[in-house]
Amino acid sequence: MGKPPHTSYHSDPRVDALVDETIGRVADKWTLLVLEALEEAGEQRFSAIGRAVPGISQKMLTQTLRQMEREGLVTRTVHAEVPPRVEYRLTVLGHDLAEAFCGVWHWAERNIETIEAARAAFDARQ
Amino acid sequence: MGKPPHTSYHSDPRVDALVDETIGRVADKWTLLVLEALEEAGEQRFSAIGRAVPGISQKMLTQTLRQMEREGLVTRTVHAEVPPRVEYRLTVLGHDLAEAFCGVWHWAERNIETIEAARAAFDARQ
DNA sequence: CTGTATCCGAATTGATACTG
DNA sequence: CAGTATCAATTCGGATACAG
Hints:
The structure is a homodimer.
Chain A: H1 13-26, H2 29-41, E1 44-45, H3 46-52, H4 58-71, E2 74-79, E3 85-90, H5 92-125
Antiparallel strand pairs in A: 1-3, 2-3
Helix pairs in contact in A: 2-5
Chain A binds a DNA duplex through helix 4.
């Protein structure tokens, strides 16, 4: 395992492992949703992102944003005001990732009914 | 939240929720790796997939394949032989998803060094 | 070979309370 | 406002044993 066949111009297993690891860190639910929120609305502050991602807890939002910052997907800007204002913005890297994920979104949107039907059929069979 | 701006031809929040939920189920680590293994090598039996995804336990492989079958991503064919042979194959839906994820793989491959650098810089700063 | 069932520790997550 | 700290609950995942 390691890469789609049409993807690989190299075949260093260590690079494959890194790629898999990176995807593992980046492809979790909350990261995807935050990425989407930022892609959609541009630079935004902490609470606005929280509102844009219903269901996320404050803890998960903080944790996800820190992780994204660490991966280089977002920048974090603290404005020295009272009350504090912290703004998050996608980096070019983050924006590129959002675009890459677009394909997955399209897939989900296009196939939502097929998937629901498959699920219903499977459940009926069991 | 709900969709990238360039994606949405509708804006039914219930559809958005469904899409997000679907992505949540489909974007987990093992599903991605199994998807990749099947995309790369075509129809394969249980144990071959296990070998193609190093690190996965039998339990997780079974569980992941069941879930993928439920979502309509793979078909499961049992051959009435002794010993039993069970083959898994991507559906069109599954294949399309694999293609959609290709973009993410490309992104990770292209940017692996940028990401590593970002991480190192972040860690040095803390 | 391809599973299912069970146990158990580890890791995630949510809720709540508190702080600069 | 934008977090941090903590605890409880759930979930995840590996190991093992067993079955068709």
